[in-house]
Design brief:
CATH architecture of the largest domain: Orthogonal Bundle
Shape: globular
CATH topology of the largest domain: Tetracycline Repressor, domain 2
CATH class of the largest domain: Mainly Alpha
CATH superfamily of the largest domain: Tetracycline Repressor, domain 2
Number of strands: 0
Structural class: mainly alpha
Distance between the termini: 55 Å
Number of domains: 2
Length: 234
């Protein structure tokens, strides 16, 4: 990841009295504005975002966010870029948990994806807004890096060399895998599975459900090993 995740201010997250301006130094104001934006979106949705409210929660003048980000779109793009950097880290951590098994690596990527969405619902709600990508090359690069981790996971499943273009069936598998974890994350955040949550809540359900779902979806797509393809003598 390009930068460590910033710690959300409890005052900003709760909408209470903002921190005094003199508390900020160096990059602290930039981080505070990002944290306030994430908290605001998590509470009110993207439609409830405003630079004025972000500035109020951060304890600065309404003009201060523009100094760091240019305009509202610039601030939102910065939050989305941070989100994609964090998502990439979560996917790569899933690869590490999966070890050398390409199927398990993809399953653990899915667990990491949904876990990221549960941890940062505001950022998750924001990061796929198409209008933010039109003017921010850094955001585009971060989004591509996240997608590349998943795409390389599909290459590993099919035993395709890195950098080799995917054929149509493999592209279908890539899109279906992304759609499955992305849709599950949205349904989980919307409370659609809350009636049957296990002990530990939504995070526990994600740990219990995502890997088995992906395993069921992806295992039939994995090419047989040379040993498995050999016919038994008889």
């Amino acid at each position: 990841m390009s930068r460590p995740s910033s710690t959300r201010s409890s005052a900003a997250a709760a909408g209470n009295d903002p921190a005094p301006r003199e508390a900020y130094h160096h990059g602290a104001l930039r981080d505070a504005l990002i944290d306030a934006t994430e908290a605001l979106i998590a509470e009110r949705g993207a439609q409830g975002f405003s630079l004025r409210e972000v500035a109020r929660r951060s304890g600065v003048s309404p003009a201060a966010p523009a100094h760091h980000f240019g305009d509202a779109a610039g601030l939102l793009a910065a939050v989305a870029k941070l989100a994609f950097d964090q998502l990439t880290e979560a996917l790569e951590a899933g690869n590490a948990r999966g070890g050398d098994d390409p199927l398990e690596r993809l399953c653990e990527q899915g667990v990491g994806y949904v876990g990221f969405a549960l941890t940062w619902p505001g950022r998750f709600a924001l990061m796929f807004r198409a209008d933010l990508f039109t003017k921010d090359e850094a955001l585009v690069a971060s989004a591509h890096a996240s997608y590349q981790v998943l795409e390389d996971g599909i290459r590993g499943l099919y035993a395709v060399a890195s950098g080799t273009p995917l054929v149509l069936a493999q592209e279908h598998a890539l899109r279906a895998t992304w759609s499955m974890v992305h849709g599950f994350a949205h349904l989980l955040l919307a409370g659609q599975f809350d009636a049957d949550l296990p002990r530990g809540g939504r995070a526990a359900l994600a740990r219990q459900a995502v890997a088995p779902m992906l395993r069921q979806h992806l295992a039939p797509l994995q090419p047989l090993s040379p040993r498995a393809r050999r016919r038994p003598r008889g």
